[in-house]
Amino acid sequence: MTEESSAPIAWDRRSLARWLLTRTRTVLPPLGASILFRIVGLVSGAAIIGLGTYAAASALGGTLSLGHVATLLVVLSLIKAFARYLEQFFGHYVAFKALATLRTYFFRRLEPQAPTATEGRRTGDLLSRATRDIDRIEVFFAHTLGPATTAVIVPLGMGVWLAAAVSVGVASAAVSCWLIVGLIFPLIESKRALGAARRLRHERGELAQHVTDSVQGACEIVAFGYEHRRRAEQDAWGERLRADQTTLGSIVALRRGLIAADCAATVSAIILVGAREVAAGAYGWYDLALAVGVVLGTLPAVTAVEEFSADLDQAFASAARVAQITEARPATPAPVRPVPLPDAARWGEDECPAVRIEDVTFSYAGGLEPAVRGITLDLPAGSTTAIVGASGSGKSTLAHLLARFYDPDEGRISIGGVDVRELADEDLRAAVGIVGQRPYLFNASIAENLRVATPEASDEHLLLACQRAALDPADFADGLDTQVGELGTAVSGGQRQRIAIARALLRDAPILILDEVTSQLDRETEAELSAALAELQRGRTTLIIAHRLETVQGADNVVVLDAGHVVAQGSLLDLAGNEQFRALANRD
Ligand SMILES: Nc1ncnc2c1ncn2[C@@H]1O[C@H](COP(=O)(O)OP(=O)(O)OP(=O)(O)O)[C@@H](O)[C@H]1O
């Protein structure tokens, strides 16, 4: 039984908001504090303006002395400043904590699924999702939740106060103005705005991808005179971005213009309604002035809805792009109750081989034909099995199925008698080591690249592994502290493979996959590496994928693949008469 992720979600705003809040539950208490201080700040702001207008009108007969008004204004200003500081402090704490949580979650979901999770996805686009899209979600936490809550609470409270302290007529005029500004205007062209925001996020991802591709392929671009076409493509993306930014900008401008007009109309409406009530003796001019001040002072609480709604569309568009990755169904789901892997020393007992591949068939998504079909193969403990075959015959696919980069569509693969789908991820990774054609070296020192396998390895351990991999630290300017450069460009192909072999030795996995380790090297370097490879294979169950038959000379069993099928297997001697094998040998 493996753990299935939730069913695909239709990412509308509500489900995205729920998803964001569920993923970042720990920020809810400080978020509450931020909202509380925002309410205090807004109410004091409204009171300051109200008192200001009241003070101006008190010459006409107010009940508060100007001295009292001045004292109150100072106190309210201090409260407002303090509340604003705390609101911003908690708001940004919430936002950055939530973003850090999301970033960790993004990599936690992506990394265990590597390399399948990144397959078919472009580096630049993924990078854009992991960085810019996650940053963009800040708007949701820092500038949306608080303003959205206070846009309801503050006007509601002020409306009740106006009705009680001034008049129902004035309160009704104010509330209708706030409703129009806070509820109706932000909805103007909202579908078009959301569409443009989504396209904008997509276009930014595409542009990031295009720039990444151009930087990585700079040599080819120059060598083939490809600059003009690349630049034209980039300009086209830039133009689409501009068009969507213009659409968003014009919608925002329209809404803001309408808000300004509505505010002016509201003041006129309140004065019209209030003037009649003042003339009728219901209250004084100073009360009406106070009401106008409070209505204007409350406006920031409602105009905030329009201010965050445009950015919120982009934050939701970004959240959807992040969720598409994190909530995608994993290619290799983790087992609900992992089965422990028996100790490698016991593999081979009860005639159970170290690795058993039983009737395995697998097709890549969108592949017309299965890449491997009906493969049955045993890898006895401590043996070396070589897989040979023409390009595209399914050799690497078989190795990747063993490492559980994918799960077979049919059949099963077991290690030490346990189906690999039942193994905990860390057990499987500890059991299977891989050295490929072009192992990835991080832009760090040789020592740090070696410690990728065992972080706690001492310098002595590293030196011993290097010695066994025929990697001499004296060949490098700074010994093991030598930096290998971006993508390992500061070391030769042979040195890179030796570093990878030393890394695999440190990892000490009982099963080893050597995927065309020497195919990128010249024959001289390949010959130099053979002793290091033999040292690496010693005592391990090894699967070698090979193009060149020299590499499989020491194999106990050679398996010939053709179009995903096993067409022959046996010792090199047994295979001498096999047609496909002879074709490979001749090509060699
Ligand atoms: N990630 C992938 N997505 C879709 N199809 C793939 C993928 N990887 C390999 N294939 C296809 O699966 C088939 C087997 O490929 P595989 O890489 O296993 O062959 P191979 O024998 O290792 O080839 P080579 O010797 O050239 O590395 C090929 O038809 C290939 O095009």
Write structural notes for this entry.
This protein has 588 residues and is α/β, with parallel strands linked by helices. The protein folds into two domains: 13-326, ABC transporter transmembrane region fold (Up-down Bundle), CATH 1.20.1560.10; 344-587, Rossmann fold (3-Layer(aba) Sandwich), CATH 3.40.50. It has 18 helices and ten strands. It starts with 12 loop residues before the first helix and ends with a helix. The model is unreliable at 1-8 (pLDDT under 50). Adenosine-5'-triphosphate is lined by residues 119, 364, 367, 371, 389, 391-397. Adenosine-5'-triphosphate binds next to helix 12. InterPro entries: AAA+_ATPase (IPR003593), ABC1_TM_dom (IPR011527), ABC1_TM_sf (IPR036640), ABC_CydC/D (IPR014223), ABC_transporter-like_ATP-bd (IPR003439), ABC_transporter-like_CS (IPR017871), P-loop_NTPase (IPR027417), Type_1_exporter (IPR039421). It comes from Rarobacter faecitabidus. GO terms for molecular function: ABC-type oligopeptide transporter activity; ATP binding; ATP hydrolysis activity. The chain crosses the membrane at residues 35-57, 63-83, 139-162, 168-188.
